[in-house]
Specification:
mainly alpha; Zincin-like; 9 helices
Length: 272
């Protein structure tokens, strides 16, 4: 696959607002498979690193995600390139590429491929025995902490002191565990994702985020979506507050004008 073919495939996944170029270096690198040069908007791929085109496309999509991230930021990138926003873009591109059959989902079990089938079986074990069970344990901890809080009150003790000096666990961890229980979060998302979900105050947003995680969306994708929704809601509140202030001023002005008209009508009536 040549440079033009790679660029064509990348653009077919998702268009970019700024032009870019793909360069096959013809080199092997022990450090990186590829890189994105922000100033020149070049995607450099060390093609000698790859055994097949699928691995080459994976790296190409990764570097293209950096380019699209730069496009969103007016052509610039911060010194910290691998942010949650970047990973959300990258995972979005991979999903699109898989649907268009530009990139193959290597994690889907292939018939006759022993390693692939073994990995699928191992994935099921990890999800069920470790992620879900760990989530259940933390959720159960939240239930027990609520009970401990009641008992602390009954003996005249401070619950915070019990957390600090008896259990010796961080208060934030204890509070999150309690929220996991109160919100009845699904343990199948795993304890780490449950901590993130417990930090979402809005029930509708929290349930949508949990549903997305259970559907297979990456944590970075979900976190970025939650952040964007929060910003959109905040912008809406600011807009509504401005409109409210404008309407209040208009109403005050109309009331004042109404009083003036009524006074004139009263004077006109008295002079008749």
């Amino acid at each position: 696959m040549n440079q033009d073919a790679i660029k064509k495939k990348l653009l077919s996944i998702e268009d970019a607002s700024l032009d870019f170029s793909v360069v096959l270096t013809g080199k092997f690198s022990k450090k990186v498979n590829g890189l994105y040069k922000t100033d020149s908007r070049e995607i450099l791929l060390h093609n000698k690193n790859f055994k097949d085109d699928n691995l080459l496309m994976y790296t190409a999509i990764h570097e293209y995600a950096h380019h699209l991230h730069a496009c969103e930021r007016g052509g610039e990138l911060s010194s910290r390139a691998h942010t949650s926003e970047f990973w959300a873009i990258f995972h979005r591109l991979l999903e699109k590429a898989e649907k268009k059959e530009i990139y193959k989902d290597v994690f889907a079990a292939s018939e006759g491929n022993k390693a692939s089938q073994e990995l699928e079986k191992l994935t099921g074990t990890i999800r069920k025995k470790y992620l879900a069970e760990n989530g259940n344990l933390v959720k159960e901890l939240g239930r027990l902490l609520l009970k401990a809080q009641e008992l602390c009150m009954s003996i005249g003790g401070r619950y915070e002191d019990y957390i600090d000096r008896v259990l010796c666990i961080p208060r934030q961890a204890a509070n999150l565990a309690v929220k996991m229980h109160k919100y009845d979060l699904n343990p199948e998302t795993g304890a780490d994702n449950m901590k993130f979900l417990a930090g979402i105050s809005g029930e509708e947003t929290r349930q949508a985020a949990e549903k997305a995680l259970l559907a297979g969306k990456s944590p970075d994708t979900v976190k970025t979506a939650v952040r964007k929704n929060a910003v959109a809601e905040e912008d809406l509140i600011v807009t509504l507050e401005k409109e409210k202030l404008r309407l209040e001023r208009t109403i005050a002005s109309l009331k004042k004008r109404l009083e003036e008209v009524e006074m004139k009508m009263e004077k006109a009536g008295m002079s008749r």
